[in-house]
């Protein structure tokens, strides 16, 4: 028998489960949590377990019930695929939030995660946040080992930790054969502010490896002084489209007045569609007051993709002084321009403009209708009757979006509608949204309302959602 | 590496994972949310979208929605792998399974790698079989299938980077031609592997591939829900000859999925055998 290992820190109870722990140990979790009123989160760490006994599952359910009674959260940490499969097959997975907790991992196991490109970034961030001499030494060992995947993330981790001490390692890695290692070194030199390397980084802008050229652009931007916009602007006239695109990227990251001038001038001269689209997207990221007018002018461009990029840029900036023009653009022949134009109108308070927006509804495609409904939820003083009328629409997304917009501006009206649709709507998307609104507003007896639905509900996502909330 | 990921909220996650599930059989569990964010953020940015909801509407209402659905499935089904991964089963195939089948009088042997991703697994099998001289003793057909048309195209091309070789022995590299940073699989290996596109969860896969003697299906069942796992394993059972061998990933099991196989502990690995 192995004694249950646990700790309580800052209101978090964490039990480190061993495969030999049995039902009595998990019962002990309940006893300990009951004794400690300060516990607000229970973590069950299964890092050491590649399997769990069925009795242990029963114990986990008991802990979940206790958590429900105490109204505290419970998380299963570091659950291996085998155990996830057992939880799935017993329909218990939905009861628990499942998370990684790297604090339980030995360093070598964390480094192995560098080989998983989807996880490597998160692990690297964790290691950088907890950086110490031990981690530093191990990372240097990895770099010496030469496995390019490990070397790449070792360098990135050291850079994230702002490790200036090993500057020579990063500089040396610029000569690596593997593109990913070279990119990592370039990025890190930018992060740690190594201005001495800047001239060398310019040589990588023309690299055939997109990762290298983008990394160089990002680092040059980080290391830039007053002279760099001008230097980069020369690349805007290069005959190679790829280099022009990288220069646009770098100038957008520098994001100063000079960079804006160069990019807006390039917009007037550039002929290639792909480059013009990129210029549009990047110009939209500048705060300069001229940006809105430039983007507005591009809404009449011949290129559909460019018009959409301009409209998207405007939607992120908000309509501002161009409100009346953007209202007209809702009816644009290109429905994605209409979509973004509608979205740019969030925050409008003028009743006449709101009526005008609503008037487009019957004349536009479904995606634009959805954007109109969405934006009405973000305007002030909208009469709910327009949105209420859409709750009977034949399109499930329209009903869902209308319900959402109602919830943003008319809580009680939305709740009544949500309760009705939760029980009657044929679309699970709408019912799922209704559950969310009920859970947000938590009216008296909401748990019984949700529980009552369990016997008739057929959609697995909604069942999981409700069960996860009420713990049945 | 440079792009910060766009966050997906709960409603968007459930809607998108349903789209993916209906079109691929792959079910993204809650703890794989990060994977969708990582893999799709660039695509959203390319399409000018800042939220996953807008992207979901694009998948539903754009004129090119069918094409975009293929792009989506390709982006989320890339399964990173490398040569000689989980080598125990590969060695057991070469030293036990194939010789046993030949001894039992089999003249023609079919090995199926599914999903094959970018081809490292089927080419590893081909290299090991060739090194063992087994292609001279029977007609061995290696079929490799993946749902992702882009990775199948890459596999057919047979071009790899150093990241695909993790701790492989030096002599293994003799099977590749090196050009700059690329390693090209030699034609003498390539010709033993036939690639195709298909979904292993659908019943039509059985007619696409036919009967096989050995199936490698590693590190993919974890992405299916229980129903998807059961359908897939049922397909495998129907496709396998007798004796039929099934190799799963080291962290995968048929426990609670199927009782139609017996588990064989082969020392360094686990192999499932079709029950008679």
Automatic annotation (TrEMBL), chain A:
Coiled-coil region list: none
* GO-annotated molecular function: oxidoreductase activity
Pfam families named in the record: HEAT_2
**InterPro entries to which the protein is assigned, alphabetical:** ARM-like, ARM-type_fold, PBS_lyase_HEAT, STAS_dom_sf
Q: Which SMART domains match?
A: EZ_HEAT
Name the chain's protein.
Answer: Uncharacterized protein
Tell me the organism's taxonomic lineage.
Bacteria, Pseudomonadati, Deferribacterota, Deferribacteres, Deferribacterales
From TrEMBL, chain B:
Q: Does the keyword Transmembrane apply?
A: no
Pfam families recorded: CheR (PF01739), CheR_N (PF03705)
Which keywords, in A-to-Z order, does the entry hold?
Methyltransferase, S-adenosyl-L-methionine, Transferase
Which InterPro entries would you find in this protein's record? Bact_Chemotaxis_MeTrfase, Chemotaxis_MeTrfase_CheR, CheR_C, CheR_MeTrfase, CheR_N, CheR_N_sf, SAM-dependent_MTases_sf
Q: Name the residues that span the membrane.
A: none
What EC identifiers does the entry list? 2.1.1.80
Biological-process GO terms, alphabetical: methylation
What's a single GO MF annotation on this record?
protein-glutamate O-methyltransferase activity
Catalytic activity reads: L-glutamyl-[protein] + S-adenosyl-L-methionine = [protein]-L-glutamate 5-O-methyl ester + S-adenosyl-L-homocysteine
The protein depicted here goes by the name: protein-glutamate O-methyltransferase
